[in-house]
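subagent[fold] <- orchestrator: predict structure for attached chain, return tokens only, no commentary.
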Amino acid sequence: MDAHDGGLSVAIVDRPHWTAFLQLLHFVKRFARCRASAGERLTLIVAVGSEARQRMYERAARHRRVIEHCKGVPEPRVCTRYPRLPPTFAP
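subagent[fold] -> orchestrator:
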């Protein structure tokens, strides 16, 4: 959660032995209603381990079936390195 703009990011980690298209499609479908109401404040992130997988996800993000579930908000972001997320609480 970003305290500056009130945005929320939801991330998944790529499963390399599964197809990128189906993983992305299920991820986008799962959060389609939330993204419709939250708009650009909700960001979907896919963390992948290689540039080859990143290209596969970027191509899948342009597929018409994925786009139809995006409800007018930007397509999911694909990161080659796992994003550094701030800790949610301090011990």
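orchestrator: received. Logging for downstream: Helices lie at 20-30, 32-38, 51-61, 64-68. The first helix runs from residue 20 to 30.
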